[in-house]
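For this section, I looked closely at the sequence of one protein beside the tokens encoding its backbone, which the following lines show:
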Amino acid sequence: MVKRFMEDVFTACRSKILHSQIDTNTKDEVLNELTRIKDENLGLEKRTEGTEANLQSVVSSSEVDGD
């Protein structure tokens, strides 16, 4: 759900940049930075894929223990 939201945010940002009145070189720089940020975000997602399952496991064991 968060991944989809972030993809929508990046798409909206890209659209606004493309339709802005800044010069082409500046647009290219900003779009490159946006791409870098998006790639960094996706990289973070890949590094944390197992984290959700681990957290759910901790919560489940906590519920069983009653703590």
Remarks:
- The chain has a mean pLDDT of 78.
- The radius of gyration is 19 Å.
- DSSP finds three helices and no strands in the chain.
- The helical segments are 2-18, 24-47, 49-65.
